Fold this protein.
Amino acid sequence: MPVIAVIGAQWGDEGKGKVVDLLAQKARMVVRFSGGDNAGHTVVNPYGEFKLHLIPSGIFYPRVVCIIGNGVVINPSVLMDEIAQLNQRGVDTTNLFISDRAHLIMPYHTLLDGLEEESRAGKAIGTTRKGIGPAFTDKAARLGIRAGDLLDKEVLLERLRFVLDYKNTILTKIYGASPLSLDEVYTQYCQYGERLAPHIRETTIMLEEALNREELVLLEGAQGTLLDPDFGTYPYTTSSSPLAGGSCVGAGLGPARVSRILGVFKTYCTRVGGGPMPTELKDETGDLIREQGHEYGTTTGRPRRCGWFDAVAARFSTRINGFTGVALTRLDVLDTLPRLKICVGYKLDGNTIDYFPANVAALGRCQPICEELPGWQTPISHIREYEQLPLKAQQYVTRLQELTSCPINLISVGPEREQTIMVSSIL
Ligand code: IMP
Protein backbone atom coordinates (compact mmCIF):
# COMPACT_ATOMS: atom_id res chain seq x y z
CA MET A 1 0.00 0.00 0.00
CA PRO A 2 1.28 3.45 -0.75
CA VAL A 3 2.09 6.50 1.31
CA ILE A 4 0.10 9.51 0.14
CA ALA A 5 1.24 13.01 1.09
CA VAL A 6 -1.65 15.48 1.13
CA ILE A 7 -0.17 18.91 0.46
CA GLY A 8 -1.63 22.42 0.52
CA ALA A 9 -0.86 23.82 -2.92
CA GLN A 10 -1.71 27.50 -2.40
CA TRP A 11 -1.69 29.74 0.71
CA GLY A 12 -3.34 27.22 3.04
CA ASP A 13 -7.04 26.66 3.74
CA GLU A 14 -7.42 24.56 0.60
CA GLY A 15 -9.58 21.93 2.31
CA LYS A 16 -6.90 19.42 3.28
CA GLY A 17 -8.94 18.39 6.34
CA LYS A 18 -11.85 17.21 4.23
CA VAL A 19 -9.56 15.36 1.82
CA VAL A 20 -7.69 13.58 4.64
CA ASP A 21 -10.95 12.70 6.42
CA LEU A 22 -12.19 11.19 3.15
CA LEU A 23 -9.03 9.24 2.28
CA ALA A 24 -8.55 8.06 5.86
CA GLN A 25 -11.49 5.66 5.34
CA LYS A 26 -8.98 3.29 3.75
CA ALA A 27 -5.89 4.30 5.72
CA ARG A 28 -4.27 2.77 8.78
CA MET A 29 -2.23 5.78 9.84
CA VAL A 30 -2.35 9.56 9.43
CA VAL A 31 0.71 11.64 10.33
CA ARG A 32 0.62 15.43 10.67
CA PHE A 33 4.06 16.65 9.71
CA SER A 34 4.36 20.43 10.00
CA GLY A 35 3.00 23.65 11.49
CA GLY A 36 1.18 23.84 14.78
CA ASP A 37 -2.15 25.17 15.99
CA ASN A 38 -1.91 27.96 13.41
CA ALA A 39 -3.67 25.38 11.22
CA GLY A 40 -7.42 24.91 11.26
CA HIS A 41 -8.70 21.85 9.46
CA THR A 42 -12.46 21.78 9.09
CA VAL A 43 -13.98 18.33 8.90
CA VAL A 44 -17.69 17.58 8.45
CA ASN A 45 -18.62 13.94 8.93
CA PRO A 46 -21.27 11.80 10.66
CA TYR A 47 -19.99 13.00 14.08
CA GLY A 48 -20.71 16.64 13.13
CA GLU A 49 -18.52 19.59 12.22
CA PHE A 50 -15.04 19.84 13.73
CA LYS A 51 -12.24 22.36 13.57
CA LEU A 52 -8.99 20.55 14.22
CA HIS A 53 -5.80 22.49 14.88
CA LEU A 54 -3.31 19.82 15.88
CA ILE A 55 -4.94 16.42 15.79
CA PRO A 56 -4.76 14.62 12.43
CA SER A 57 -8.02 14.51 10.49
CA GLY A 58 -8.01 10.68 10.56
CA ILE A 59 -9.04 10.67 14.24
CA PHE A 60 -12.68 9.89 13.45
CA TYR A 61 -11.87 6.31 12.42
CA PRO A 62 -11.17 4.08 15.45
CA ARG A 63 -8.81 1.84 13.42
CA VAL A 64 -6.65 4.73 12.24
CA VAL A 65 -3.53 5.52 14.24
CA CYS A 66 -2.99 9.29 14.31
CA ILE A 67 0.46 10.73 14.85
CA ILE A 68 1.53 14.29 15.51
CA GLY A 69 4.97 14.12 13.96
CA ASN A 70 8.31 15.55 14.99
CA GLY A 71 7.89 18.40 12.49
CA VAL A 72 4.91 19.87 14.35
CA VAL A 73 5.19 22.39 17.19
CA ILE A 74 2.68 21.54 19.90
CA ASN A 75 0.95 23.84 22.34
CA PRO A 76 0.06 21.25 25.03
CA SER A 77 -2.82 23.32 26.35
CA VAL A 78 -4.43 23.55 22.90
CA LEU A 79 -3.86 19.85 22.32
CA MET A 80 -5.47 18.89 25.63
CA ASP A 81 -8.50 21.07 24.87
CA GLU A 82 -8.80 19.49 21.46
CA ILE A 83 -8.60 15.97 22.93
CA ALA A 84 -11.24 16.89 25.56
CA GLN A 85 -13.60 18.38 22.97
CA LEU A 86 -13.34 15.32 20.74
CA ASN A 87 -13.92 12.98 23.69
CA GLN A 88 -16.97 14.98 24.79
CA ARG A 89 -18.44 14.49 21.33
CA GLY A 90 -17.86 10.76 21.38
CA VAL A 91 -14.61 10.60 19.40
CA ASP A 92 -12.04 8.23 20.85
CA THR A 93 -8.47 9.54 21.02
CA THR A 94 -6.66 6.49 22.42
CA ASN A 95 -4.98 6.04 19.05
CA LEU A 96 -3.42 9.48 19.10
CA PHE A 97 0.37 9.60 19.46
CA ILE A 98 2.84 12.43 19.69
CA SER A 99 6.43 12.23 18.56
CA ASP A 100 8.79 12.64 21.50
CA ARG A 101 10.86 14.81 19.15
CA ALA A 102 8.07 17.34 18.49
CA HIS A 103 8.89 20.75 19.93
CA LEU A 104 6.57 22.45 22.39
CA ILE A 105 5.08 25.89 22.22
CA MET A 106 5.86 27.59 25.50
CA PRO A 107 4.11 30.62 27.02
CA TYR A 108 7.00 32.90 25.95
CA HIS A 109 6.51 31.84 22.32
CA THR A 110 2.95 33.11 22.16
CA LEU A 111 3.93 36.27 24.03
CA LEU A 112 6.87 36.94 21.72
CA ASP A 113 4.81 36.25 18.58
CA GLY A 114 2.46 39.10 19.58
CA LEU A 115 5.26 41.43 20.68
CA GLU A 116 7.30 40.84 17.54
CA GLU A 117 4.28 41.47 15.33
CA GLU A 118 3.52 44.73 17.13
CA SER A 119 7.12 45.86 16.81
CA ARG A 120 7.00 45.31 13.05
CA ALA A 121 4.21 47.90 12.88
CA GLY A 122 3.37 48.50 9.16
CA LYS A 123 5.51 45.50 8.17
CA ALA A 124 3.66 42.94 10.30
CA ILE A 125 3.43 39.46 8.80
CA GLY A 126 -0.09 38.96 10.05
CA THR A 127 0.78 35.76 11.92
CA THR A 128 -1.85 33.77 13.78
CA ARG A 129 -0.05 34.80 17.02
CA LYS A 130 0.03 31.20 18.18
CA GLY A 131 3.78 31.30 18.86
CA ILE A 132 4.70 29.32 15.75
CA GLY A 133 7.59 31.48 14.49
CA PRO A 134 9.24 31.84 17.92
CA ALA A 135 8.93 28.07 18.57
CA PHE A 136 10.58 27.15 15.25
CA THR A 137 13.20 29.85 15.88
CA ASP A 138 14.08 28.13 19.16
CA LYS A 139 14.17 24.74 17.45
CA ALA A 140 16.78 26.04 15.01
CA ALA A 141 18.62 27.92 17.78
CA ARG A 142 18.83 24.73 19.88
CA LEU A 143 16.74 26.35 22.60
CA GLY A 144 13.62 24.25 22.18
CA ILE A 145 11.85 22.03 24.67
CA ARG A 146 10.45 18.83 23.21
CA ALA A 147 7.51 16.58 24.02
CA GLY A 148 9.93 13.91 25.26
CA ASP A 149 11.32 16.37 27.82
CA LEU A 150 7.93 16.32 29.56
CA LEU A 151 8.56 12.71 30.53
CA ASP A 152 11.50 13.56 32.76
CA LYS A 153 10.80 16.31 35.28
CA GLU A 154 14.45 16.88 36.10
CA VAL A 155 15.43 17.30 32.49
CA LEU A 156 12.46 19.62 32.01
CA LEU A 157 13.42 21.78 34.96
CA GLU A 158 17.05 22.05 33.94
CA ARG A 159 16.16 22.93 30.36
CA LEU A 160 13.44 25.38 31.33
CA ARG A 161 15.64 27.17 33.86
CA PHE A 162 18.29 27.78 31.22
CA VAL A 163 15.90 28.86 28.45
CA LEU A 164 13.51 30.91 30.59
CA ASP A 165 16.33 33.00 31.98
CA TYR A 166 17.27 33.95 28.43
CA LYS A 167 13.66 34.53 27.34
CA ASN A 168 12.91 36.70 30.37
CA THR A 169 15.86 38.92 29.46
CA ILE A 170 14.35 39.42 26.01
CA LEU A 171 10.84 39.95 27.37
CA THR A 172 11.90 42.53 29.94
CA LYS A 173 14.90 44.26 28.33
CA ILE A 174 13.76 44.42 24.72
CA TYR A 175 10.00 44.58 25.03
CA GLY A 176 9.54 45.99 28.54
CA ALA A 177 7.16 43.10 29.29
CA SER A 178 6.85 41.22 32.58
CA PRO A 179 9.02 38.14 33.14
CA LEU A 180 7.50 34.67 33.38
CA SER A 181 7.79 32.69 36.60
CA LEU A 182 9.89 29.52 36.38
CA ASP A 183 7.76 27.88 39.08
CA GLU A 184 4.50 28.55 37.31
CA VAL A 185 5.64 27.47 33.87
CA TYR A 186 7.36 24.38 35.27
CA THR A 187 4.34 23.30 37.33
CA GLN A 188 2.02 23.83 34.39
CA TYR A 189 4.20 21.84 31.97
CA CYS A 190 4.64 19.02 34.52
CA GLN A 191 0.85 18.74 34.59
CA TYR A 192 0.71 18.66 30.80
CA GLY A 193 3.38 15.97 30.86
CA GLU A 194 1.38 13.77 33.23
CA ARG A 195 -1.71 14.12 31.08
CA LEU A 196 0.01 13.62 27.72
CA ALA A 197 2.51 10.90 28.76
CA PRO A 198 0.39 7.99 27.43
CA HIS A 199 0.46 9.60 23.98
CA ILE A 200 4.18 10.45 23.74
CA ARG A 201 6.19 7.90 21.74
CA GLU A 202 9.11 7.20 19.45
CA THR A 203 6.68 7.42 16.54
CA THR A 204 9.08 6.57 13.69
CA ILE A 205 9.03 2.95 14.88
CA MET A 206 5.23 2.88 14.61
CA LEU A 207 5.46 4.43 11.17
CA GLU A 208 8.05 1.95 9.98
CA GLU A 209 5.93 -0.97 11.24
CA ALA A 210 2.91 0.33 9.31
CA LEU A 211 5.03 0.72 6.17
CA ASN A 212 6.44 -2.78 6.54
CA ARG A 213 2.90 -4.14 6.88
CA GLU A 214 2.13 -2.29 3.62
CA GLU A 215 -0.67 -0.32 5.22
CA LEU A 216 -1.97 2.90 3.68
CA VAL A 217 -0.37 5.87 5.40
CA LEU A 218 -1.40 9.50 4.86
CA LEU A 219 0.94 12.40 5.52
CA GLU A 220 -1.25 15.35 6.41
CA GLY A 221 0.08 18.77 5.47
CA ALA A 222 -0.75 22.06 7.15
CA GLN A 223 -0.67 25.56 5.63
CA GLY A 224 0.27 25.71 1.96
CA THR A 225 3.18 25.74 -0.46
CA LEU A 226 3.15 29.52 -0.95
CA LEU A 227 3.68 29.94 2.81
CA ASP A 228 6.83 27.79 2.76
CA PRO A 229 9.82 29.65 4.23
CA ASP A 230 12.01 28.73 1.22
CA PHE A 231 9.59 28.88 -1.68
CA GLY A 232 6.73 31.01 -0.39
CA THR A 233 6.36 34.77 -0.37
CA TYR A 234 9.19 35.29 2.13
CA PRO A 235 9.13 36.93 4.67
CA TYR A 236 5.32 36.66 4.54
CA THR A 237 5.43 32.95 5.22
CA THR A 238 5.05 30.51 8.04
CA SER A 239 8.06 28.89 9.73
CA SER A 240 8.01 25.20 8.77
CA SER A 241 7.88 23.49 5.41
CA PRO A 242 4.40 22.52 4.18
CA LEU A 243 5.92 20.93 1.05
CA ALA A 244 6.02 17.29 -0.02
CA GLY A 245 9.75 17.42 0.77
CA GLY A 246 8.94 18.64 4.27
CA SER A 247 6.58 15.72 4.81
CA CYS A 248 9.45 13.23 4.99
CA VAL A 249 11.46 15.22 7.52
CA GLY A 250 8.40 16.16 9.57
CA ALA A 251 7.00 12.64 9.76
CA GLY A 252 10.24 10.66 9.90
CA LEU A 253 10.40 8.55 6.74
CA GLY A 254 12.58 8.40 3.66
CA PRO A 255 11.51 10.14 0.41
CA ALA A 256 11.47 6.86 -1.53
CA ARG A 257 8.64 5.65 0.70
CA VAL A 258 6.25 8.36 -0.51
CA SER A 259 4.43 7.02 -3.53
CA ARG A 260 1.77 9.66 -4.24
CA ILE A 261 1.74 13.41 -3.70
CA LEU A 262 -1.73 14.89 -3.80
CA GLY A 263 -1.83 18.66 -4.24
CA VAL A 264 -4.94 20.26 -2.78
CA PHE A 265 -6.03 23.33 -4.74
CA LYS A 266 -9.10 25.47 -4.31
CA THR A 267 -10.78 26.53 -7.55
CA TYR A 268 -9.83 30.09 -6.62
CA CYS A 269 -7.18 31.58 -4.30
CA THR A 270 -7.34 32.84 -0.74
CA ARG A 271 -4.76 34.11 1.69
CA VAL A 272 -4.84 35.42 5.26
CA GLY A 273 -2.29 37.82 6.66
CA GLY A 274 0.11 40.12 4.79
CA GLY A 275 2.11 39.60 1.61
CA PRO A 276 1.43 39.80 -2.11
CA MET A 277 -1.32 37.88 -3.88
CA PRO A 278 -1.41 38.81 -7.58
CA THR A 279 -4.99 37.70 -8.31
CA GLU A 280 -6.58 39.30 -5.24
CA LEU A 281 -10.03 40.79 -5.90
CA LYS A 282 -10.76 43.87 -3.83
CA ASP A 283 -14.23 44.23 -5.32
CA GLU A 284 -17.68 42.74 -5.01
CA THR A 285 -16.61 39.53 -6.81
CA GLY A 286 -14.00 39.00 -4.07
CA ASP A 287 -16.68 39.70 -1.44
CA LEU A 288 -19.06 37.27 -3.14
CA ILE A 289 -16.47 34.48 -3.16
CA ARG A 290 -15.74 35.19 0.53
CA GLU A 291 -19.41 34.97 1.47
CA GLN A 292 -20.23 31.96 -0.73
CA GLY A 293 -17.16 30.11 0.50
CA HIS A 294 -17.39 31.26 4.15
CA GLU A 295 -13.81 32.38 3.73
CA TYR A 296 -13.01 33.39 7.28
CA GLY A 297 -9.99 31.98 9.16
CA THR A 298 -10.73 28.79 11.10
CA THR A 299 -8.10 29.69 13.69
CA THR A 300 -8.34 33.48 13.89
CA GLY A 301 -11.72 34.33 12.31
CA ARG A 302 -10.01 36.87 10.03
CA PRO A 303 -11.65 37.47 6.63
CA ARG A 304 -9.58 35.77 3.94
CA ARG A 305 -8.41 37.71 0.91
CA CYS A 306 -10.02 36.12 -2.15
CA GLY A 307 -9.00 36.07 -5.81
CA TRP A 308 -9.01 34.13 -9.08
CA PHE A 309 -7.18 30.84 -9.56
CA ASP A 310 -3.53 31.61 -10.20
CA ALA A 311 -2.12 29.09 -12.68
CA VAL A 312 1.36 30.65 -12.57
CA ALA A 313 1.52 29.97 -8.82
CA ALA A 314 -0.11 26.57 -9.37
CA ARG A 315 2.54 25.47 -11.88
CA PHE A 316 5.25 26.61 -9.46
CA SER A 317 3.60 24.67 -6.66
CA THR A 318 3.30 21.57 -8.85
CA ARG A 319 6.96 21.83 -9.83
CA ILE A 320 8.43 22.14 -6.35
CA ASN A 321 6.19 19.47 -4.83
CA GLY A 322 6.10 17.01 -7.73
CA PHE A 323 2.36 16.48 -7.46
CA THR A 324 1.19 13.19 -8.90
CA GLY A 325 -2.44 14.26 -8.70
CA VAL A 326 -4.73 17.08 -7.67
CA ALA A 327 -7.71 17.35 -5.32
CA LEU A 328 -9.71 20.33 -6.52
CA THR A 329 -11.91 21.76 -3.78
CA ARG A 330 -14.81 24.19 -3.56
CA LEU A 331 -15.96 24.06 -7.15
CA ASP A 332 -19.51 24.74 -5.86
CA VAL A 333 -18.44 28.13 -4.43
CA LEU A 334 -18.24 29.45 -8.01
CA ASP A 335 -21.81 28.31 -8.84
CA THR A 336 -23.35 31.78 -9.10
CA LEU A 337 -20.61 33.65 -10.96
CA PRO A 338 -21.44 34.61 -14.58
CA ARG A 339 -17.78 34.82 -15.69
CA LEU A 340 -14.66 33.19 -14.27
CA LYS A 341 -11.08 34.24 -14.70
CA ILE A 342 -7.87 32.22 -14.51
CA CYS A 343 -4.51 33.93 -14.25
CA VAL A 344 -2.16 32.46 -16.89
CA GLY A 345 0.76 34.92 -16.71
CA TYR A 346 1.96 38.10 -15.04
CA LYS A 347 2.79 41.52 -16.39
CA LEU A 348 5.86 42.73 -14.48
CA ASP A 349 7.29 46.19 -15.19
CA GLY A 350 6.08 46.05 -18.80
CA ASN A 351 7.27 42.47 -19.46
CA THR A 352 5.19 39.31 -19.58
CA ILE A 353 6.49 36.56 -17.32
CA ASP A 354 5.26 33.03 -16.67
CA TYR A 355 7.11 32.27 -13.42
CA PHE A 356 6.48 33.08 -9.74
CA PRO A 357 9.13 35.65 -8.68
CA ALA A 358 11.08 35.02 -5.47
CA ASN A 359 11.15 38.71 -4.63
CA VAL A 360 7.99 39.84 -2.82
CA ALA A 361 8.34 43.41 -4.04
CA ALA A 362 8.39 42.14 -7.64
CA LEU A 363 5.50 39.75 -6.98
CA GLY A 364 3.61 42.68 -5.48
CA ARG A 365 4.00 44.58 -8.78
CA CYS A 366 2.78 41.63 -10.89
CA GLN A 367 -0.48 42.27 -12.69
CA PRO A 368 -2.39 39.10 -13.57
CA ILE A 369 -2.96 38.26 -17.23
CA CYS A 370 -6.26 36.39 -17.24
CA GLU A 371 -8.27 34.11 -19.47
CA GLU A 372 -12.01 34.34 -19.11
CA LEU A 373 -14.45 31.45 -19.10
CA PRO A 374 -18.23 31.41 -18.76
CA GLY A 375 -19.71 30.39 -15.39
CA TRP A 376 -22.26 27.53 -15.14
CA GLN A 377 -24.66 29.41 -12.84
CA THR A 378 -26.43 26.38 -11.47
CA PRO A 379 -25.98 24.47 -8.17
CA ILE A 380 -23.64 21.46 -8.37
CA SER A 381 -23.29 20.33 -4.72
CA HIS A 382 -25.57 17.32 -5.30
CA ILE A 383 -23.53 15.98 -8.25
CA ARG A 384 -21.37 12.86 -7.72
CA GLU A 385 -20.33 11.96 -11.30
CA TYR A 386 -17.99 14.07 -13.38
CA GLU A 387 -20.11 13.65 -16.52
CA GLN A 388 -23.12 15.06 -14.65
CA LEU A 389 -21.37 18.40 -14.09
CA PRO A 390 -22.58 21.22 -16.34
CA LEU A 391 -20.44 21.43 -19.48
CA LYS A 392 -19.12 24.85 -18.50
CA ALA A 393 -17.96 23.48 -15.12
CA GLN A 394 -16.20 20.62 -16.95
CA GLN A 395 -14.54 23.16 -19.24
CA TYR A 396 -13.29 25.15 -16.24
CA VAL A 397 -11.91 22.01 -14.57
CA THR A 398 -10.30 20.81 -17.81
CA ARG A 399 -8.59 24.17 -18.26
CA LEU A 400 -7.19 24.07 -14.71
CA GLN A 401 -5.91 20.55 -15.38
CA GLU A 402 -4.22 21.67 -18.62
CA LEU A 403 -2.62 24.67 -16.95
CA THR A 404 -1.28 22.73 -13.97
CA SER A 405 -0.28 19.73 -16.13
CA CYS A 406 -1.41 17.41 -13.40
CA PRO A 407 -4.33 14.93 -13.39
CA ILE A 408 -7.29 15.94 -11.24
CA ASN A 409 -8.10 12.92 -9.07
CA LEU A 410 -11.03 14.31 -7.15
CA ILE A 411 -13.31 17.33 -7.04
CA SER A 412 -15.02 18.54 -3.89
CA VAL A 413 -18.46 20.14 -4.31
CA GLY A 414 -19.34 20.68 -0.63
CA PRO A 415 -17.96 20.27 2.89
CA GLU A 416 -19.37 16.80 3.55
CA ARG A 417 -17.49 13.58 2.85
CA GLU A 418 -19.90 12.39 0.21
CA GLN A 419 -19.96 15.73 -1.61
CA THR A 420 -17.06 14.49 -3.68
CA ILE A 421 -16.61 13.50 -7.30
CA MET A 422 -13.94 10.85 -7.80
CA VAL A 423 -12.50 11.55 -11.23
CA SER A 424 -9.54 9.16 -11.38
CA SER A 425 -7.63 6.91 -9.03
CA ILE A 426 -5.18 8.59 -6.66
CA LEU A 427 -3.15 5.39 -6.35
P1 IMP B 1 2.19 31.89 11.51
O1 IMP B 1 2.29 30.56 10.87
O2 IMP B 1 1.15 31.98 12.58
O3 IMP B 1 3.52 32.41 11.95
O4 IMP B 1 1.69 32.95 10.39
C1 IMP B 1 2.50 33.25 9.25
C2 IMP B 1 1.61 33.44 8.03
O5 IMP B 1 1.03 32.21 7.66
C3 IMP B 1 0.45 34.42 8.23
O6 IMP B 1 0.19 35.08 7.01
C4 IMP B 1 -0.71 33.49 8.56
O7 IMP B 1 -1.96 34.07 8.24
C5 IMP B 1 -0.40 32.32 7.63
N1 IMP B 1 -0.95 31.05 8.11
C6 IMP B 1 -0.51 30.29 9.12
N2 IMP B 1 -1.26 29.19 9.25
C7 IMP B 1 -2.18 29.25 8.29
C8 IMP B 1 -3.22 28.36 7.89
O8 IMP B 1 -3.45 27.29 8.46
N3 IMP B 1 -3.97 28.77 6.84
C9 IMP B 1 -3.73 29.93 6.18
N4 IMP B 1 -2.77 30.77 6.50
C10 IMP B 1 -1.98 30.43 7.55
